[in-house]
């Protein structure tokens, strides 16, 4: 099977830099300026590739008053490498492919670790919890952009599915002091398995419904679409990205 053609084009920077960069498109994409021996000088994902390159090579428009112009790399630059983006997702994909080759993820200040919701319906009394990592890809669901996004999803899920919010260990009993003193049990926002208001199999069945929603196997109830984006799924699942472009779609 033949290799896939590279989405990147290289313009060698020799002689008249401005004339060479006129070959670059004025469309959004990912650009990289290389120095001696092909070493990386700067990477960007501008809305206008040509304007971005001209600006970093001392040929751009003067900056607004009070703004610092980009560092002029014209004395070091040997090539301009760019890839034209066809959709917002493709724009990000190209950028990540370039960054992966040059910058370790541990050094990326623009990347923040995602958060996940953990729920194991096999436990005796399952509960939702927020985790900073997908420790178990079967019982972790996400990714959520940050902890606040995961917290919003957790709160919304509790409003629809009365899973217990506590982390107590208990033996169910109708007069359990722990349960009788619980506000969630008093206002009936929790199924209260501690007080035997629901059976253990029924409670685990409730948790299984939440798992189905988080894993994408069941449609989220009304009101949850905003906090459960389409990409939220089991951490071990694979996804398909569909990016619309006019009358066509990119997969």
Question: Layout of helices and strands, plus pairs?
Answer:
Layout: E1 8-12, H1 17-21, E2 29-34, E3 40-44, H2 49-56, E4 79-84, H3 88-102, E5 115-118, E6 129-131, E7 140-144, H4 147-160, H5 177-180, H6 183-186, H7 200-214, E8 233-234, E9 243-245, E10 248-250
Antiparallel strand pairs: 1-4, 2-3, 2-4, 5-6, 5-7, 7-8, 9-10
General description of the model:
- The protein is 26% helix and 17% strand.
- It contains seven helices and ten strands.
- The strands form three sheets. A four-stranded antiparallel β-sheet has the order 1-4-2-3, sandwiched between helices. Strands 6-5-7-8 form a four-stranded antiparallel β-sheet. A two-stranded antiparallel ribbon has the order 9-10.
- With 251 residues, it is α+β, with helices and mostly antiparallel strands.
- It folds into two domains: 8-107, GIY-YIG endonuclease; 115-234, no CATH class.
- The two termini are 20 Å apart.
- It has helices at 17-21, 49-56, 88-102, 147-160, 177-180, 183-186, 200-214; strands at 8-12, 29-34, 40-44, 79-84, 115-118, 129-131, 140-144, 233-234, 243-245, 248-250.
């Amino acid at each position: 099977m033949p290799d896939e053609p590279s989405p990147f084009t290289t313009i060698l920077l020799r002689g008249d830099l401005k004339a060479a960069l006129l070959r670059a498109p004025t469309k959004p994409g990912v650009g990289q300026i290389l120095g001696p021996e092909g070493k990386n000088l700067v990477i960007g994902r501008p809305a206008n590739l040509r304007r971005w390159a001209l600006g970093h090579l001392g040929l751009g428009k003067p900056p607004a008053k009070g703004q610092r112009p980009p560092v002029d790399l014209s004395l070091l630059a040997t090539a301009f490498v760019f890839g034209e983006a066809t959709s917002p997702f493709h724009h990000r994909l190209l950028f990540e492919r370039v960054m992966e080759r040059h910058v370790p993820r541990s050094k990326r200040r623009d990347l923040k670790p995602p958060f996940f919701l953990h729920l194991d319906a096999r436990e005796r009394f399952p509960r939702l919890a927020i985790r900073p990592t997908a420790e178990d890809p079967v019982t972790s669901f996400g990714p959520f952009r940050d902890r606040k996004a995961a917290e919003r999803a957790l709160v919304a899920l509790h409003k629809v599915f009365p899973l217990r919010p506590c982390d107590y260990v208990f033996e169910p009993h109708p007069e359990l002091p722990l349960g009788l003193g619980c506000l969630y049990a008093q206002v009936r926002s929790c199924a209260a398995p501690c007080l035997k208001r629901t059976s253990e199999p029924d409670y685990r069945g409730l948790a299984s419904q939440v798992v189905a929603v988080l894993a994408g196997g069941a449609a989220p109830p009304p009101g949850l679409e905003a906090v459960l984006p389409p990409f939220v799924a089991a951490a071990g699942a694979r996804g398909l990205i569909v990016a619309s472009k006019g009358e066509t779609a990119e997969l």
